[in-house]
Amino acid sequence: MNESKKTIIFAAVALGIALLAFITTPKRVTPDAFLDKGELFFPDFTNPNDATTLEVIDYDADTGTAIPFKVTNNNGIWTIPSHHDYPADGKDRLAKTAAGVIGIKKDEFRSDNATDHEALGVIGPLDEIETSLKGRGQRVTIKGKNEVILADFIISKEIEGREKYRFVRIPGKKLVYAVKMDIDISTRFSDWIEADLLQVEKNKIKQLTLKDYSINERTGSVQQRDVLVLNKDGDNWQGNKMSSKQEVDKTKTNDILKTLDELNIVGVRTKPEGLTQSLKKSGDGVSLSTQTVLSLQSKGYYFTRDGQLMSNEGELQARTEDGVIYTLRFGEIVYGTGLTVTAGTETAKDDEKETGENRYLFITTTFDAGEFTEPTKPKNREFITKADSLWTDADKKNKELENAHNAWQRKIDNGQKLSDELNARFARWYYVISSESFDKLNLSRKDLIKEKKKDT
Questions:
Q1: 442: number of Cβ within 10 Å
Q2: Domain boundary residue among 157, 192, 227?
Q3: DSSP 317-383
Q4: pLDDT value at position 318?
Q5: What is the pLDDT of residues 198-227, one digit of tens each?
Q6: What's the domain range around 100?
Q7: Assigned domain for 330 exists
Q8: CA 361, CA 454: separation in Å to the nearest integer?
Q9: What percent of the chain has pLDDT over 70?
Q10: What is the distance, to the nearest Å, from the Cα of residue 424 to the centroid of all Cα atoms in its chain?
Q11: CA atoms of 122 and 166, how far apart (whole Å)
């Protein structure tokens, strides 16, 4: 074989080897995820006001249970279905959350491998295929009218060392992205409700009445131990049955006023319908069914022989300058944590029944028209048929009397309206308050009346 043929053969072999190497060498593939970097997750979701429902599912790894939370608009009324459709102060908060979701982008591709989901914390909280209790994220779903899904995603906790960054995955997809988001997706009941429960200003409270008594639950009889009445006197307070050597503890009294002004609830339960309707109409002294009486007793409330509603932990009344009297009745201890406290949809565990951090609260209001003395009515109203220039001194006097009487009537009407509106709000619910609030409100004479300090 001559040299030229050898050269051609060697060249062909080299070409074949090179071609084989090219064919068998793994190709470098650029994942599609890199191609959509910076794109919006939900490009069709552009108006935050389109959102009418927020559903969030958290996961408790300690108990291995999913925790659902939902806020929705039902015929123009915002409610929390997981908490007996309690009214939600949710429109602005939901719109703000929705606006944050609209802006989230696919900032950094992290993985397209399902085996990474646990480490990244984006396993779905309701995923039944995955057996791991760890690495489960929070699923967030935002819907619009007619249950149209506007956004649906699973997010991890904040990435360690990267403020405001979380891993995000779309349900049913493997792709995971690191995303910068400044969104407060709260599932706390207290964050979604009207914070000002009583809607009372502390500087308008002019009288506090603390009733200390006990109830014989079997007979319905009441043992009255004491009734402490505190009346506002300028910047100070005066109590009944006080000696000249005693004074009202101003600090503790101010704590009561502040707590009433800022009273928050940690949970709710619905009252029986018959009780709710009766309370909306008249407050106390209602006729109740056996079922309703049992419901009351389970929360620590009882009717006396003469039909008065009492509570096993006493009560507090606060009278305002508007003539509205708030009555707060303190009931049984509420045991447990989480939904057991906030909604009562779960039963307290055995180890939670030893200590209780919360109390039932029953609220009603009444209006005392006697708070405002009715002024003298005009002797006649002939002045209304005359021009102002023709009024006599008597006409002018009658006009002044009528203005004063009209002002009085407005106070009466406004006070009664306020009381009715408050009763309509309170009528459906047993509230749950924290033990901290209970301890500040449920005081007695020995707590609030102290000896005056001797002059040194």
A1: 18
A2: 192
A3: EEEETTSEEEEEEEEEEEE-STHHHHT--SPPPGGGSS-EEEEEEEEEEEE-GGGSPPPPPPS--GG
A4: 98
A5: 999 999 999 999 999 888 777 767 888 999
A6: 32-192
A7: yes
A8: 40
A9: 86
A10: 18
A11: 10
The per-residue pLDDT for range 245-302, each reduced to its tens digit, is 999 999 999 999 999 999 999 999 999 887 776 666 544 555 678 888 889 999 999 8
Confidence tier at 336 by pLDDT (50, 70, 90): confident
Contact 324, 419 (CB under 8 A): yes
Arithmetic mean of pLDDT over the chain: 87
Residue pair 372/412 in contact (Cβ under 8 Å)? The answer is: yes
Q: Is residue 117 part of a domain?
A: yes
pTM: 0.81
Cβ contact 301:310 at 8 Å: yes
- pLDDT at position 25 is 42
Which SS3 state, helix, strand or coil, does residue 355 take? coil
Structure tokens belonging to residue 363: 């609220």
Query: In 3-state terms, the chain is what percent helix, strand and coil (to 5)?
Result: 35, 30, 35
184 and 206 share one domain: no
**Which one-letter amino acid corresponds to residue 289?**
S
Short-list 250, 371, 374, CA closest to 320: 371
Q: Identify whether residues 141 and 283 lie together within a single domain.
A: no
Residue among 183, 192, 171 at smallest CA distance from 125: 171
Q: How many domains does the chain have?
A: 2
Helix (H) or strand (E) holding 3: helix 3-24
With contact defined as beta carbons under 8 Å apart, do 89 and 83 qualify? no
Q: Is the pLDDT of residue 235 over 70?
A: yes
Q: What is the DSSP string of 377-418?
A: PPS--GGGGS-GGG--HHHHHHHHHHHHHHHHHHHHHHHHHH
